[in-house]
Specification:
The protein is mostly helical. The protein has five helices and two strands. It has a two-stranded antiparallel ribbon. The radius of gyration is 14 Å and the shape is globular.
């Protein structure tokens, strides 16, 4: 596996739309919540949310920068979900959590492979 690209294979069809939705929400609230601190992540988020990099079917091949963008958005989404009083169905939450954990693990693996320490 190259440190430049990491492959993720989603298990459920709801996972890609969920991550695209997460990115779109983060982009919509970027000015109020300051989800990302740099334009690189905002550009990544736009291309992943509105492009074909997170297809519903098949594997995703993402760079470390794209994984970091997703990781930041996921952490923001988890925090907003925890602060909300709305409850998500356990089976749906399981699928969301599974892909969130996989993206975060992929980012950590790629960062460690590159000699960087992820936080």
């Amino acid at each position: 596996m190259s440190a430049d690209v990491f492959t993720i294979e989603p298990q459920w069809i709801v996972q890609a739309p969920y991550l695209r939705c997460t990115l779109k929400r983060a982009l919509a609230l970027q000015s109020a919540h300051n989800v990302w601190s740099g334009t690189e992540h905002i550009e990544n988020a736009v291309s992943m949310a509105y492009g074909d990099q997170l297809p519903d079917f098949g594997r995703w091949e993402l760079t470390r920068s794209q994984l970091r963008t997703l990781k930041i958005a996921i952490e923001w989404r988890r925090a907003t979900r925890a602060a909300s009083d709305q409850k998500t169905a356990p089976d749906i939450l399981e699928r969301w959590t599974q892909i969130e954990d996989e993206v975060i693990a992929a980012y950590c693996a790629v960062s460690n492979e590159a000699g960087l320490h992820s936080i």
